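Continuing the series of single-chain predictions for the mutant panel. This is the parent chain; the variants come on the following pages.
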Amino acid sequence: MLLLLSLLACEEPTDPENVWERGENPHLQDDVLRMNHVQVKGTHNSYHLEPDNPLDDSHRYSQPTLTEQLDLYGVRQFELDLHLTEDDDWEVFHIPGIDAETTCQRFVDCLGELKTWSDAHGWHLPLVVWLEPKDDIDGMAEGYDLIRDDLPLIDDAIRSVWPEDRLFTPDDLRKDHADLPTALAADGWPLLGEVRGQVLFAILDTGEHRDTYLAGSDVLAGRVAFVDTSNADDPFAAMVKDGSPAEITAWAEAGFLITDNGSGAVDDAATAQAIDEEEMAAGVHHLATDMPAPGGDYFLDLAPRCNPVTAPQTCDDAEIEKL
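Parent structure:
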């Protein structure tokens, strides 16, 4: 049944109407545990399929479908690379012509696949989706344009699939505070009971694309997505992508939400395991891997659990997610 729903989601965008199958919340610590008290498995280039003739060893891996990652392997954080076609459609793949194989090419299809699974698992942990504008050579690729000032339009695509009450946005975190760091210091991230079944988006860029998305409001007022930061004093600072283990711990202890790339396709099994174990111990919230599933010499075996750095001592792994 899930496979059928996944295939349907890849043909047409999902109806934004709420169709949760929820029932009673089975989690007993949702009035204590918060979003940043959790550690989950994520994936890097979550859509990626190995090309027939890889030009680089880092391209030698294939991810399961988004539905399989969610349903079979406990993945709760995703990364989608964005490209803009000449027809103003958003597509998801790595590099035009070189590394372009993908499990869901249209962005709205990827979103629909995530939402179809979410509809059937209403008490899941909030999903985190990093969106990376990857248009470095799109101006030279047939059928594609540079994204430039069009990036804010990505909000419209997201809202065409996900209803507003299932999006956790910067406005939801900031509320009446002046900026996001002030809100985090005063209130922290929301309780899990407030955000289960929702999705949080973030823009993976610290340069021109981030500046474009921030235009008009440096606190992301009205925007769907958060943005990456490397400065805790930025008015938009709430989420961080990548860092050393020491930096991860420092950011986590300061209340920020951290995603980091861990084991990669170029790593041997021993190296991959060592990288992942070090980052998990450092307190990363979302550990993104190229190897989320069994089948090779190594895969990241991480079920949603209490974060070893940020969770309270009373946190029970069994209460993080019951599906």
